[in-house]
User: Fold this.
Amino acid sequence: MDISQIENVSGLSKLRLLNLSGNRIARVENLRGLQSLTELNLRHNSISDVTDLQYLPRLQRLFLSANSISSLDALACLWDCRSLSELSVDGNPVALESCYRHTLLRCCSPHLQLLDMRRVTEEERRSASVSARKEDEKKKESHKLAAHKERRRLAIQNAAHQWEGLKQNEAQQWEGLKASSLEIPAQNGSKEDVSSDNSPAHSPAQTNGSAQETSPDEPRRLSPLTLSAGGLRSASRPNSPRDSRFQDVQSLSMSERHLAELEGDTLRLFGPGALETLERCWGVQTASSVTTVSFRYIHFDSIIPTFLRIRLKFPNLTHLMFTETSISHLPQLAALAQIRRLDQITVRPEGNPVVRLTLWKSFLIYRLQHLNLQKINGTEVTMNDITASELMFGALGHVAATETPRCRMLLLLEESRKRQLQFLLDGRGRRTGQSPEELKDNGKHAGDGLSRALFNYPSRVSDGPEEEGDVSQRSAMVHQYLRGLVHRASSHSVKGETLQKIWPSLFAELVRDCVLEMRDTQAFRQTCLQRITHSK
Assistant:
C-alpha cells in the first residue's frame, strides 16, 4: 500500500536514514524530532511543497527528484539547512527555470557539494555569488524607485491641495470685495450682480479642473513627507532601467509641496517652490536639451518674472505648457512676448478661465506675431487665423498707438520699444541719410510693432496680503465702473431704438402742427412778430 502522508516518525530520534521513494506523498511535513537523520530519500512522489526540513540539524543528503515541485518558494525551508552537502531536485518543473541552479547555489548551504548529481565548482559558486549581489541591487533599486514614486506622488498631490486652498481663499476674498462693492450705488441706480465667473481670481474651471486627478490611487489622507531638495547633478541617471515611464526622469528638486523633474526634453514644474530650480546652475548640455517647460499649480503672475531667465537659460525652448495657472484675462497672455523663440503654446482649460473666452487665440496670435507660432493647444496656426487676428485687433492696436499720449506710451512700453518710439518721434531717420521711401516703410513697421507692444501686462507680483487686497479692490472698482458704462450704453441704445419706432408718427404730428399753425397766414405773421418783440 502506497504512503500518501508522512506521519508517526517524530519519535525516531536516532533514525539516520529514511527512504520513502515511490509513494504518493504530496507534502513533506511532520519531520520534527528526527535529530539524527542525515539522509532523506523522497524520489518519485507527488510532492509539491516541502516543509519542516529546517528542523533536521544533521541532514546532509536530500533527494527530491521526479516530483511536482513547480516553484522555488516551495523549497524555502532548505535555505536554513546549513549542513546540507548533496541535493537532487531534477525531474521537477522548477528545474526547467533558467535561474534554478544559480538560485539553489546562492540560497542553500555553502557546504553543498553535489547538486542534481553534478559537482558544484568554484566557478559556479562565484557566478552564483555575483548573481546574488545583482539580485540584491535590483531589489534595492526597486525599493528606491517605489519610494521615489511615492514621494513624487505625494509632492504633486500636496501641491494640488495647496493650490486648491489658495483658490478657495482668493474666492472668499473676492466674494467679500464683491459684496462690499455692491453696496456702492451704481451710476444707473441699480445693483447688478457681478458673476464670479468673470473674476480673475476665481472660476469654475479652477475648482473642478484636474487638481484632484494627479493619481487614480491617491490616498484620502496625506502622510508627512520629509525630503531634502536634490541637486541637479545628484540624479544624473534613471532610477530603474526596467521602468519605462521613469527611465529618463531626473528629479531636480522635491519637497512636501513642490516637484521639479526633467523627463527627456520636458521640464515639469509643480507648485510655486519648483520655480527655484530655474535659479540654479545648469549644465550647458542639460539646458540645451530642454525644449518644453510645463507649469502646474503655479499662479501665472508668479511665472512671469521667470520668462527672461527661461529665455536665456534654455536656448532651444520651443513649447510652453500651462495647467492650473490662473490665466484669466487676455493681457496676461501678452507677457509671453518676453520669450523670443517659441513654436507652440498650450493653455489647458483646467484652472485657466481665459480659454473660455472666444478671442483668446486670436489675441495670442496677434500679440505674439514676432514668435511665428506654429501650434496653439495642439492645433496648427493657419494663415486664415493670422488674417482674422489682424482684422480683429489690428484696428484696435492702431487706435491705441495713435491716440495714446506720448508720456503714457513711455510708461507702458519696454526699454527697446521706448527707444524705437523716441526714434520715430524725433525723426532721427532723416539724419541717418535714409530716403523718404525707406523712412516711410521703417515707420510703418515700427508703428505696427508699437501697436502690438501696447498690449502689455505689468509683471509685478504681489509681496503681501495688503497689496493683494488693493489689487482686488481696484479690480472690483473697475468692474463697477464697467457696469455703469454698459448700463448707460444700453440705455442710449434702448432710447435710439424707441425713437426709430415712434419717429414716423412723431414726424407726421410735427408736419400736421406746422400746417395747422400756418393755415392763417396773417395770424401766423402776427404771432411771429409778437415772439420777436418779446424776445428782444
